[in-house]
Amino acid sequence: MKITGIIAEYNPFHNGHAYQIAKIKEETDSDYVIVAMSGDFVQRGEPAITDKYERARMALSCGADLVLELPALFACASAEYFARAGVALFTRMGCIDYLCFGAENADLSQLNKIAGILADEPRSYQDALNRYLKEGKNFPAARILALKSYLSAESSDAALQTEQLTSLLSTPNNILGIEYLKALKTCGSQITPYPILREGAGYHDTDILLKNASASAIRQTLKQAGSSGSSSGSAPDFASFSAAMPQEAFQIFSEYLASSTYLEADDFSGILNYLLLFYPAEALACFADCNIEIANRLKKNRSAFSSFTQFAALNQSRDITYARMSRIFTHILLHMTAEDYKQAKQLGYVPYLRPLGFKKSSSDVLGEIKKHTDIPLIGKLANARQTLSDDAFWLLEKDIFAADLYEQVLAQKNRTIPRNEYTREIVLL
Amino acid sequence: MKITGIIAEYNPFHNGHAYQIAKIKEETDSDYVIVAMSGDFVQRGEPAITDKYERARMALSCGADLVLELPALFACASAEYFARAGVALFTRMGCIDYLCFGAENADLSQLNKIAGILADEPRSYQDALNRYLKEGKNFPAARILALKSYLSAESSDAALQTEQLTSLLSTPNNILGIEYLKALKTCGSQITPYPILREGAGYHDTDILLKNASASAIRQTLKQAGSSGSSSGSAPDFASFSAAMPQEAFQIFSEYLASSTYLEADDFSGILNYLLLFYPAEALACFADCNIEIANRLKKNRSAFSSFTQFAALNQSRDITYARMSRIFTHILLHMTAEDYKQAKQLGYVPYLRPLGFKKSSSDVLGEIKKHTDIPLIGKLANARQTLSDDAFWLLEKDIFAADLYEQVLAQKNRTIPRNEYTREIVLL
Description:
- The first copy, chain A, is α/β, with parallel strands linked by helices.
- Chain A contains 22 helices and nine strands.
- Helices cover 54% and strands 9% of the residues of chain A.
- In chain A, α5 crosses α9 and α17 packs across α18.
């Protein structure tokens, strides 16, 4: 039995995602594709466009066999933690053959070379990185410069001392890909990395562009449709992004949007504003990705708060990206501290497997996992307190809190009754 | 120099309040009237209709000479704590002659008799009270029944064994009055209690009724005016309550309402809902007026939450009044625990005097207070950290938090920039 793992957000699921699943099955002859998917909050530090069950349903309807939830703590973390947790999850399953990921550049040797440097962190690379950070560069920019400087000192590798390095490190897919490779190295995983080149990238024909729209382009289209309506709550123009999604996923997505509004970061503005007032700077500094300088700045600027996204943009700076600021806000909302990350790391990142959904026809893959894994597979959430260690349950509670908060704010916006995470059904297709 | 103290909310200031100030000055020949007023959250567990500075301005423009803030911890507490703190504040000033309060029944001897029983809590009264509480009566109801049962056993006092007792204990003014008398006894205060009969009570002529409308009737009128408008944010019909307020107070109130919206408890719904999700039942149980049974009920009912007031009404019960539930919610929002009350009690309830405003022409009363008081008078808030003990500053920080939260939610609603409590000016008239 050959099994491939994919770490994803599917926010929402689109043609590129379907292509990746089809391609990996075809190229590696995989019997099953298992997805480790973020829950209701995503890596950018925002609520997902639909809840995790809907996103799991889209994935299952378009080729995935099983969708597991990536713990919330890591789903809205920096790329390094996000990738590390995803790789840990697949490695601990004990039966995954390939880790498939999208890349703008599928040259595995180049990606691996960079991952090797980042995993080993040779002294001269570290020195260069610290120098650029001290100069006030943000982390992604400083890392590119430090890699360049390290590689240019290695005369043997002129091939990477070019513009190519910048482009290699400037796309989210490649950055994540390199983090996956780094994580596989670091935890000595037996899983084979399998990058797949994004289809259609480079083409400029409008139709192709639409067919290959990214998840963020789809979200953007949706938001523009929502805000351009003359009255509040007008139905978004579904047709404008139907071409970008597989038919089955589009069906699920449009039905969801017809029956429910979708959440945006700004729906959490009031709560965030309260918490920024409530916590003293010293407490804010303890949340993951924050520090005392940022905390003091947030306190100082508080009177200029008008919304989550406006305040994230206001407080970003040369050395703090918007995404980091947005993640800090989400860590505050979800109460995720730097200490929590340390603790979860000690638990091996992912101390449980939690299915969000699976295809009935693929149910024997669950048996295969149970045979090989060293961590519990959560069936009914209500039984988790009995079957998990206290430590593991502590991490699971963060997933439950994130899901309940998402539901609560969504229900307030929809004027419906929030569903309780404990009583929601796993998606069976 | 004769000085009278009044404990008040002025939410908003109306004819009855003006009458009380004029009457006490006239009857006692007082030189100055000092008001201990709640800040931005009031005893019912709700935000005040206008912020505390506006309410202080109304009072000063209608006869008060100095307005001090009652610490937020006690301003939104049960009648007992509210009264106790107000009496402590005036007693610690060391120069107050009279404590004036409104009453439906100005027979001091009757009020005093009841206050005496409540202060001493004789065994048979206690037994009766506990019996009624165990039967599931709420506290106010159980107290009336216990007093009746105690007094009926005292055959000498047939006068109070009537309907009169119920009516005596059924109006908020009398209940507070009795609490003031009880507090004066308990803390051995030298201040003379001075009840003033509410003017106009009992008259049914419409004009008189309007002229004697209560603060809650004015708030009700305002809310009805607000919700009956065809479009959102239509200006309330000021004329409908102008007759109930002195000209000067009406002027200030209507100018405020023309430039700003007003806050209601439901403006805090989103934050409250978050906090009810965030805190485990054990933590909710620690907030003042709450307990583990109530906390469990709040957690259990959480999915039926749609707003602050709806959820307070939903969770009230035979033994828990709406006002108590609303106060619990405000304690959660303002993070006021049962432990905080204990700690503040040990500080002598009110460990500082904080003027919200005063009449320039009455400024020598400040000198008189400074001469007699044993607690610091806060001039500039920015200097308070230096002049107050750590304990006292801890209590003051709760006032600052309450004010900043009020401002923040108001500013979000008004789409303006919130004012910072540290930079607001004391009202000088």
